[in-house]
């Protein structure tokens, strides 16, 4: 890469939460950023935060589980920003329930967004990475990959993403492409707020209760995860591949 070329990063589910913090962080690292979310208008705040700081970003509406939308989004990003060679598969949803109450539709929705979405996005972007001889893929797993009551769908998807990551690392390494997974513990976002709402707790009480179980005695913030992702997507991280990093304020059982 010449010193004047700017790498293009794609962050999915980046209208808010961990994805938004990651998009802003990667822009601060000098990347041009495609901010993808279901609703293009919802990406406006993230894009404005980047451009106000002097960065380059575009908002892209795309359902990552829809093949045609993914192909159109990646083609648009390549045309407007340049070849995407950094990909953060962050888009996610919860459809929690105990197994006996979980519908097949709730199972499919979670598999489609996390696993099919990461597959489609990685497939569409890898062409650009292989052509460039450089690529960085980061997949968002979760501490729930180790098993979590009420999340048989989500834990299966997040464990699946770890195997997906390791296989990408083996297939794409020879083209200069790394793949790693970041597995957050409890991070304060709309996702964990929705869980607090579902169990009938105020979010502050929910966070305080979670913090008592975390060795560093606080819950995580989106920037804690963006920081780990910035490392894996960095120019200097080319020999770090196929890894799963738990970012959870302490070790997990
Ligand atoms: P969040 O606040 O709920 O943000 C997720 C974003 O993804 C939302 O903007 C959502 O859009 C978008 N999205 C959902 N389905 C999509 C689709 N099909 N295509 C494109 N975008 C889609 O979640 P978060 O807490 O930041 O989590 C980000 C990632 O980290 C997820 O993969 C999550 O599973 C993982 N994670 C989070 C935690 C945590 O404690 N927060 C812990 C471990 C792992 P809508 O609002 O329109 O649905």
From TrEMBL:
Annotated PROSITE patterns: ADH_SHORT (PS00061)
Identify one Pfam family in the record: adh_short_C2
UniProt keyword list: NADP, Oxidoreductase
Q: Which SMART domains does the UniProt record give?
A: PKS_KR
Gene Ontology BP term (one): monocarboxylic acid metabolic process
**Record EC number:** 1.1.1.100
Q: Which GO terms describe its molecular function?
A: 3-oxoacyl-[acyl-carrier-protein] reductase (NADPH) activity
List, for all copies, the residue spans of the domain called Ketoreductase.
7-185
InterPro entries with a match to the protein in the record: KR_dom (IPR057326), NAD(P)-bd_dom_sf (IPR036291), Sc_DH/Rdtase_CS (IPR020904), SDR (IPR050259), SDR_fam (IPR002347)
User: Which Gene3D superfamilies does the record cross-reference, listed alphabetically?
Assistant: NAD(P)-binding Rossmann-like Domain
PANTHER family cross-referenced by the UniProt entry:
3-OXOACYL-(ACYL-CARRIER-PROTEIN) REDUCTASE, 3-OXOACYL-[ACYL-CARRIER-PROTEIN] REDUCTASE FABG
Q: What is this protein called?
A: 3-oxoacyl-ACP reductase FabG
Per the UniProt record, the source organism is Streptomyces parvulus
Biological classification of the source: Bacteria, Bacillati, Actinomycetota, Actinomycetes, Kitasatosporales
Quick one: which gene encodes this?
Answer: fabG
């Amino acid at each position: 890469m010449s010193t004047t070329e700017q790498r293009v990063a794609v962050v999915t589910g980046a209208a808010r939460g961990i994805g938004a913090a990651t998009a802003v962080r990667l822009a601060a690292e000098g990347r041009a950023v495609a901010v993808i979310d279901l609703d293009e208008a919802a990406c406006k705040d993230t894009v404005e935060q980047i451009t106000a700081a002097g960065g380059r970003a575009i908002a892209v509406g795309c359902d990552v589980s829809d093949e045609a939308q993914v192909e159109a989004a990646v083609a648009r990003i390549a045309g407007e920003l340049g070849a995407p060679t950094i990909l953060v598969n962050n888009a996610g949803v919860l459809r929690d329930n105990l197994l006996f109450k979980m519908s097949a539709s709730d199972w499919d929705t979670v598999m489609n967004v996390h696993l099919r979405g990461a597959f489609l996005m990685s497939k569409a972007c890898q062409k650009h990475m292989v052509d460039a001889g450089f690529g960085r893929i980061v997949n968002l797993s979760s501490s729930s990959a180790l098993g979590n009551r009420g999340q048989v769908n989500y834990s299966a998807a997040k464990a699946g993403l770890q195997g997906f990551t390791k296989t990408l690392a083996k297939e794409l390494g020879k083209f200069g492409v790394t793949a790693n997974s970041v597995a957050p513990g409890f991070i304060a976002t709309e996702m964990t707020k929705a869980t607090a709402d579902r169990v009938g707790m105020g979010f502050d009480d929910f966070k305080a209760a979670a913090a008592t179980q975390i060795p560093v005695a606080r819950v995580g913030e989106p920037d804690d995860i963006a920081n780990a992702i910035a490392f894996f997507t960095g120019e200097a991280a080319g020999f770090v591949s196929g890894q799963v990093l738990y970012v959870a304020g302490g070790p997990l059982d």
